[in-house]
Amino acid sequence: MSASTLSRFQGTLLGVLVGDCLGGPFEGSKYVSKAHLNKYFAKMLDPSVRLPFKTYTDDTAMTKSVALSLIQCRRVDPMDMAKRFVSEYNADPKRGYGATVGDVFQNLHLTAFEDPFGPASRQFGGMGSYGNGAAMRISPVPLFTHSTSDESDDLSTLLAAVETCSKVTHSNPLGIRGAILHAIAVRAALRHKAGEKMDTTAFTNGLIDIMAQVEGADSGKAHMTHSKLDKDPETSYVKKLEIVRSFLALNEPPHREEIEEVLGTAVSAHRSVPTALYCFLAAQKPIPEIETDNVFQRALMLSFHLGGDTDTIGSMAGALAGAQFGLDGIPSGLLKHCEATKQAVQWGEDLFNLAETSSSASSKGTQRSS
Ligand code: F2R
Ligand code: MG
Ligand code: MG
């Protein structure tokens, strides 16, 4: 695989980290004015200005666990991931974790990890969590399953890997499908031809096709009320993606209140994953009153402007822009304000080396396991 693919792997994970660190201070805000964001970014990019260092939150902490588990186990091992989540949480529980995911960690520990999916499946009276915690940490998985050869780039391998990784903490179909949507969007951003202008409608249509299959296939599972979820515009990812596509087609971008009302800025997966995708796609061209020519920065600024779950929406939008543009697309002046940038770049490199080894092994007939 090429040096540019290496840079895009690294950019994906650095994008997770930078979006999370820079968006963390705004999490829970009603909204953040564009004027404030223009000043915030100008200050950070001014080499003469010293600012307090920004630490990462649960989004990066859990992404780190997923990345290191894949790198060390060379497969998707839910037990290993569960142990890493718990040990990362115990080492630093004050990273702004979701309100109930701590119960899953505690129960995993109390049951000695005997069933890595058990505690999550009992959350919310057996409904499972539909928080965005599975989606926010999923970016290493499409890197792990990435292949340069179209024949061995098996989408079903990615979907199965995402489901396994998600179910350690999130068993609700909305939580899992949110992770699927973000993972296939990272995959598509990685595969977007470098240097070419993005056709955002075609990009969204590609995701709609896959999510229609996912929602259709899930509807057949007897124990869940999936078909109801798929028909409800609030909980169907296909319907949300159709809204994203219609927003992108407008001459004037929608006002933040409309984006917030229709797509959402909440901690639930269905009210944040499509929003992050919209921020990434809308950032492909200039946005009124957002003062930057850089797509990565613009995606983050729009994410923060919307308020609500800014660290997570910014982190997911950052992963997508990082996958599209690689390290060079991330303004270097932003990095010095964030914790652990070197580590994030290293996780990207390690996943690249793994994917490269697997691609050459699969071209010789041996396959990476999910
Ligand atoms: N927790 C936060 N932000 C809160 C403020 C943090 C503050 N800045 C600080 O510093 O302390 N952010 C993080 O949480 C989100 C990811 O959450 P995750 O991992 O999905 O957690 P959980 O607990 O599983 O779900 C989150 C909430 O969603 C609601 N919910 C989920 N499923 C539900 C269901 N079936 N029925 C009803 N409600 C459900 C609950 O309120 C959950 O607590 C990210 O934003 C991350 O940054
Ligand atoms: Mg967070
Ligand atoms: Mg958050």
Question: How would you describe this protein?
Answer:
This protein is an all-alpha fold and 370 residues long. The chain has a single domain (3-221, 230-359), classed as ADP-ribosylglycohydrolase fold (Orthogonal Bundle). 61% of the residues lie in helices and 0% in strands. The protein has 19 helices and no strands. The protein has helices at 3-23, 34-45, 58-73, 78-91, 101-110, 118-121, 133-136, 140-144, 155-166, 173-191, 200-219, 226-231, 237-249, 256-262, 273-282, 295-305, 310-325, 332-335, 341-363. The longest helix is centred in the last third of the chain and has 23 residues, at 341-363. The two termini are 20 Å apart. The model has no long low-confidence stretch (mean pLDDT 94). The structure holds ADP-ribosyl-L-arginine (F2R) and magnesium ion (MG) (2 copies). ADP-ribosyl-L-arginine binds at residues 27-28, 57-59, 96-101, 124, 127, 129-133, 136, 172, 267-268, 309, 311-312.
Global outline:
globular
The helix-strand sequence is HHHHHHHHHHHHHHHHHHH
Gyration radius (Cα, Å) is 19 Å
- The proportion of residues in beta strands is under 5%
Main location: nucleus
Subunit structure: Monomer.
Keywords: Chromosome, Cytoplasm, DNA damage, DNA repair, Hydrolase, Magnesium, Metal-binding, Mitochondrion, Nucleus, Signal
Subcellular location: Chromosome; Cytoplasm; Mitochondrion matrix; Nucleus
